[in-house]
Structure formats: C-alpha cells, structure tokens
Amino acid sequence: MRVKPKKNLGQHFLANDGIAMRIADSLVCTGDARMNVLEIGCGTGALTKHLLRRGDLLLKGIEIDGESIAYLRENLPEIMPRLYEADFLKTDLRKIFPEGNFCIIGNFPYNISSQIFFKILEYKDSVPQVVGMLQKEVAERLASGPGNKNYGILSVLLQAWYDIEYLFTVGENEFIPPPKVKSAVIRLRRNGRTVLGCEPDRFRQVVKAAFNQRRKTLRNSLRAIGLEPAEQFAGLRPEQMSVEDFISLTSQTQK
After folding, report:
1. % of the chain at pLDDT higher than 70
2. Is the peptide bond prior to 200 cis by the omega test (within 30 degrees of 0)?
3. Average pLDDT over residues 30-41
4. Which domains does the chain possess?
5. Is the sign of the CA dihedral 168, 173, 176, 181 positive or negative?
6. Contact (Cβ atoms closer than 8 angstroms) between residue 146 and residue 240
7. How far is CA 84 from CA 3, 41, 224, 234, in A?
8. What is the pTM of this model?
9. Is 29 exposed, middle or buried (0-12, 13-18, 19+ CB in 10 A)?
10. To the nearest whole number, what is the mean pLDDT of the chain?
11. 8 band by pLDDT with thresholds 50, 70 and 90
12. Which of 181, 195, 198, 235 has the fewest CB atoms found within 10 Å of its own CB?
C-alpha cells in the first residue's frame, strides 16, 4: 500500500535513506543501559527502521495518521507492539514511559514544531536528549545565541535547559512531496541546570513580553506587562540579552 502525504498533518516523507540513517545515528547513547526513545510521527518508517536496528535503543513510536499506521503494520510490524496511535501534543508522555527518562527523535511536522518544543519543556527533567528535523529557519532560531537576528523566545526558553547543536541541512528534494523550504537537523542535550534561579512562569512571561516587542528596549516592552527592569537592562533590546541575563532580570523584577 502507499501512504498519501496529508497537507493538514504537515507530512513530507523523507526519501533519502542515507539522511535517515544519519539522523538516527545523531542520537548519542551514553552509559551501559539501553536508552528509551520516543519517535514522533513514524510515518512510513524511514527513520524508524534505522532506530530499530540500533541495539542500544528501546524504541517506542507515536503516530496520529491511521493510514501510516496501517502501512507500518504491513511493512514494519516489529514496531507495532510499541506504537501508540495518538496526538503527541495531547498525550501524557509519562504514561508511555512510566519507568523514567526517555529521549525524543523525529522528523517534526513544520506546522507544529514549535508546539512540540514547548511540550518538551514540560518534560525537561525526563528528556535528556532530543534530535529533530524541522524547518531550517526554525532550527537556526533555536540554536542562535544573543546578537543574532534569529534569536528569540524559544531560543532562550530552550537554552535555559539544553545545549543546542545545529547538525546539518537537508534540501527540499529529499522529501515526497518536496517542501518549499530547506530543513535542518538539530540536537538538544540537557545541560547541568537543575534550578532556574527565578520563578519559571515569570521567566516565560518576561521573555515573551521582551521578544513580542523586540524592536523596543526592555524598559518599554516590560512596562506593557507592569514590570520595571533594573537600570542595567532597561536600555537593552531582547536580542542583546543572554539566558543568564534574562534569569537575572526576572529575579530582580520579582523583588
């Protein structure tokens, strides 16, 4: 059977087996124990089959498309006992991995990639590593640091907890159907931070308010939410602020 790519699900199936293998190999296993892994959107199994061949992984998958699930049942039956037919964004991942930590990998649909990362942040203490392929522009944004025009809300929120590497670019013609933009693969690895050093909800509020009016100084953008930044930050714009600066700024606005 053939799976028809569905626009509403953002499906672009990877057709280059070499790239699929390279993505699967980008997940770094540490320690002696086999690593729990969740693949988001198994599709036609282009990535799944390479993950299954790795003896250092214990793979589970989640897929929302019934047609893709039927294809996998016929062509990659070994994943079926560990494949969940569900919407990743609406799933309690602790029910899939009650035993503890798990890594995440996938060719993420462009239309929900940011939502996927916001959800990963909810499980940051259980997810030590993420490898994902997504739109190149979004990948550059997540990996960008201060002073870069791509640096934004998710850059700061993710880099507070993860070290992010831009691994490689993937061209449009490696997919069926070809997307209109290039893709890229990034890797997130949990850093050593255990405590943020400020109130997490206030931190998100400050970061979002700052970048929602990124052309304004922090004095002006934060006044919109009733906050007055310390003088050392007041004249800066958000792209000039490191993660540590945002943590310090948030701590001072809490006083």
Report:
1. 98
2. no
3. 87
4. 7-190 (3.40.50.150), 200-253 (1.10.8.100)
5. positive
6. yes
7. 18, 10, 43, 48
8. 0.93
9. middle
10. 93
11. confident
12. 195
Residues with Cβ < 8 Å from 66, sequence gap 6 or more? Answer: 85
Which tens digits make up the pLDDT trace of 200-229?
Answer: 999 999 999 999 998 899 999 998 888 888
Say whether 220 sits in a helix, a strand or coil. helix
Residue 245 and residue 233 in contact, taking contact as beta carbons nearer than 8 Å: yes
Question: What type of residue is 124?
Answer: K
pLDDT digits (tens, 9 = 90+) for 9-34: 777 888 999 999 999 999 998 776 78
- pLDDT, position 255: 52
d(CA 180, CA 217): 35
Q: What are phi and psi of 37, to 5 degrees?
A: -135, 140
Q: Which amino acid is present at 125?
A: D
CA distance 57 to 176: 28
Enumerate residues 6+ apart whose C-beta is below 8 A from 102.
Answer: 35, 36, 37, 38, 60, 93, 96, 126, 127
In whole angstroms, what is the distance from residue 95 CA to residue 88 CA? 12
Instruction: Tabulate helix, strand, coil % of the chain (nearest 5).
Output: 40, 20, 40
